[in-house]
Amino acid sequence: MRRLVVFGLSISSSWGNGHATTYRGLLAALARRGWEITFFEHDVEWYRAHRDLPRPEFCDLRLYADWGSAAVRAEASSAVREADAVLVGSYVAHGTDLVQWLDGQPARPRFFYDIDTPITLTAFQQCGAAEYLRADQVPTFNVYFSFTGGPALDELERTWGAQQARALYCGVDESVYRPHDVQERFACAVGYMGTYAVDRQPGLERLLLDPARRNPGASFILAGAQYPQGMRLPPNVRHIQHLYPADHAAFYSSCGLTLNLTRSAMVRYGWSPSVRLFEAAACGACIVSDTWGGLSTLFQEGREILLTTSGADVQACLALTDTQRQAIGEAARHRVLAEHTYERRAEVFEDAVDRSAAVGATVR
Predict the structure, then answer these.
(1) Does residue 362 have a pLDDT over 70?
(2) pLDDT at 134
(3) Other C-beta atoms within 10 Å of 190: how many?
(4) Which CATH number fits domain 184-339: 3.40.50.2000, 3.90.950.20, 1.10.530.10, 3.30.420.10?
(5) DSSP letter string over 288-324?
């Protein structure tokens, strides 16, 4: 039995974030491989009000109110002393203080999991620090795991001094994300699921709302939290405030086309697949995605995914037959199950732990 301590944004609530489903998939896979896991999560009101996994079976969830509390730090210190590895995630509250505190703890292989790499690197370039990690703290981790591969890994090592940067993309739990029968409540020509982001909004307008206006007889769905209350939607676009993970597979299986939109920083760096992309593919969805570098290494255009830059492209995709869309969805599902499950991600993580243990503790 090996022990892992994780400090992450959230595992108890998937509301408005993509971190929770990633941690759930990865840690559940590690637990199946014999790991005993403790997860420290800052207890905040907006997650407390929307907890869809308050008692995960695969890890010991420790909610804390104040990282500055001596009692909380004592509890965390006790867990770290017993750990074989420590993992710190991006967007952890008081992350820079937490990483500095770890410097005073017993040496253990230490890893950073950046689920927001382009945002982190942009902050480093602008002011030398993100709100959850300083650039000078990057070299203190044995391995810097990144949601973004490609050139970002070179930048992490050459510019910011990472001992080793490795891609650890999000993945999919194939026992949860699989094809479902179409559910009438989610049936639509095009569906998009994603939290509101200012930089994604132009893509939403161009690739979902404009096609909706061109096809007033078809139904479209926008699912996601934090959209402005005054946002005007075409009458044939239904907005669902939030879909819990238990409904995701049914949603993807019920959409004629599933739209994937990427934040601008991720587009700029490329090599940044989202959780939603793999989840939709595992459900056999026919995905229509915006384009970015590295996407072609994950899915084959035209056979496993459809790429688009304009509403006219979406219009052309809508003209595909059910048989054509089904073939694309099935090919994408086959690719994901072969290469992008959390069992595969757990193997990558374990390999990094084993290699780090072999060469010694974290360089400080």
Answers:
(1) no
(2) 98
(3) 24
(4) 3.40.50.2000
(5) EE---TTGGGTS-BTTTBEE-SSHHHHHHHHTS-HHH
